[in-house]
User: Fold Arginine biosynthesis bifunctional protein ArgJ from Cystobacter fuscus.
Amino acid sequence: MPAEVDKPAKMNLTLIVLDEPTPAFGAVFTTNAFPGAPVLVGRERLREPTLGAVVVNNKVSNVCAPGGVEASERLCAEVARGLGLSATQVLPCSTGVIGWRLPVDAMVGAVPAAVASLDARSVMPAAEGIMTTDLYPKVRRASVGQGSIVGIAKGAGMLEPNLATMLVYLLTDVDVPRDALRATLRSVAARTFGCISVDSDTSTSDTVALLSSRQVPCPSLEQFESALERVCADLAEDLVRNGEGVHHVMRVRVHGAPDEAVARGIGKSVVNSPLFQCAVNGNDPNVGRLVMAIGKYVGAHHPGMDLSRCTLRMGGRVILQQGTFRLDHEAERALVAHMKEAELYASVAPADGLTFRPPVTWPPHERAVELDVDLGLGSAACTVLGSDRSHEYISENADYRS
Amino acid sequence: MPAEVDKPAKMNLTLIVLDEPTPAFGAVFTTNAFPGAPVLVGRERLREPTLGAVVVNNKVSNVCAPGGVEASERLCAEVARGLGLSATQVLPCSTGVIGWRLPVDAMVGAVPAAVASLDARSVMPAAEGIMTTDLYPKVRRASVGQGSIVGIAKGAGMLEPNLATMLVYLLTDVDVPRDALRATLRSVAARTFGCISVDSDTSTSDTVALLSSRQVPCPSLEQFESALERVCADLAEDLVRNGEGVHHVMRVRVHGAPDEAVARGIGKSVVNSPLFQCAVNGNDPNVGRLVMAIGKYVGAHHPGMDLSRCTLRMGGRVILQQGTFRLDHEAERALVAHMKEAELYASVAPADGLTFRPPVTWPPHERAVELDVDLGLGSAACTVLGSDRSHEYISENADYRS
Assistant:
């Protein structure tokens, strides 16, 4: 593949290894109908009695490439040999450019060094190793009884999980049986990673895996689920805040909905509207585009739904009630102030006149543009996280093969 | 509304008037569930025995504004008075910013001058008058027997019709009865305006209207439908080519599909993928993103569908066959050349470092990035038109309330 030759950017090979293989593991994968070879292999791994390690590479995602499954299996076999496991105890994950071939010979050659550098003290090297266009590593933790859950995540673009995508590894010492662990993971992933979008594009590769070392008794499944949700919700917000070219995180709380699917659909329509994303980017309170995005979803999917009781708020302020805008000079000034306060950075004119780069490498705050949609129709609710659309996103994705 | 005061951009009031009111008229409207007041009024007009005129304003779309329907009706009444019609014989249309109030007093004051300047010789003044962010007026024509169909269109952003949106006025002297005329309009609009997208956002306001003066006999309904489809398909492509910030038009032909809805869904998913749009903008043959966009739609809507017989072509060249990429150095060079040939212009570094403006005001050619998706599953097909995503789109929509 030409670009592999032209752009020999550094690939990281990352290992996550348990002290002992565990039966208590689970994973959810992308819903994309062109899944990568590692996803095909990973789905098979779910039938195995135990899992002992995960091997991750960035830069090349191994999707629809000739010999892709064989390449993933060969890498698993080499990692297993180095760790004293069987190949079926190793979960492979690849992220990066779609279409290129995995440089499997070089990767196999790097396995002994990866095994030798395993570090029991910190997940930070792994959180850094799996990064692609991420600006910073993402690590979150929560306690459960005497134990804890630690999670790491990578992902900045091609980020709209359906149930789950991106690369997320959740490690716990809390002992939860396989079936309960998998059911909890599915439901928590849907409520967290399933409710974010940076660009509405669903990756072909990505994976959320949860592995338990079973060292600590589980106080209750409710406590475990609640801690897992906290870790996943925090990582999901980290992913959006670090999304490609993100200047503003948007948090859309939709409530008063007839069911949760409607609430999520409306939230996604708002955060994925290119026109509303641009308005937010420019700190322009063009709330007409917010109304458009809600009406577009409802008109396309639930044309009979009555929106006359819908109330919209931005930054806590009512902007539409009973089908009519409530706007004036003072309201517009307050909305501009709210958006400016949520801005992570302002664009800097690029040196070459064309290629914008974010001037920050770490989010300066955790604020968001707060949007509230009350449909006045029921009791279901959903909160969706998304982002604006900026020159930096265009530069990242038009001029650079990431 | 503050922005009405701060940005008193010129509003045009445009009249389209028949020599006599006609029973042979029809219209299709946006599916957005927050329709503008003129759409609410327009739907009522479809029940009237005859229509004699259309009144159109740009700049303010009269959506969810206090007293919106009353404002539209008052304008219709004033136009009717000037033309010797009744108010119910006038179709109102407004396009522009959502949320602002129609400056109806000023508009009523302008009606006499609009009536006095009616021009029977050309539709060009109307095609120019209805423009908002359009770079140029759009006029198309086709013959039917001894008669013809002439169409004008405006629309550059918030442009993904579901059945029909934007403002399009189709005028014919061919005599087609009302029911047949409306059925033909619905089906043609779905196949033309229903198969384009600039930004996946569905306008709250827009309208496609067809009016016949019934002066010339219709040779056959098939000939009429075919001519109408030619005019509408040409206008639809004009809308995309003039879309906000468009550097490349993409034409996605999906065939071998089990049904037309699947074909259209896949085509829309490709043209609406932010990541693929950016790759096309940068003349980067990142066809992995094309595969991602197809798999995202199929995985979300038809998870059981078999994609193993899918063949993808770009610029006539096979890039994926039997689930595997067919790429090499020479193929990538050819794809880059195809994309560069379809480019309308390259971005010019902006004077202020941040605000990009298109350096052209008229499309230099009619070429497109040609994509062909053969699913190998059936005989249904659909061609979808869309565009890339550029710095100019961000500048137009982030920094400027259009």
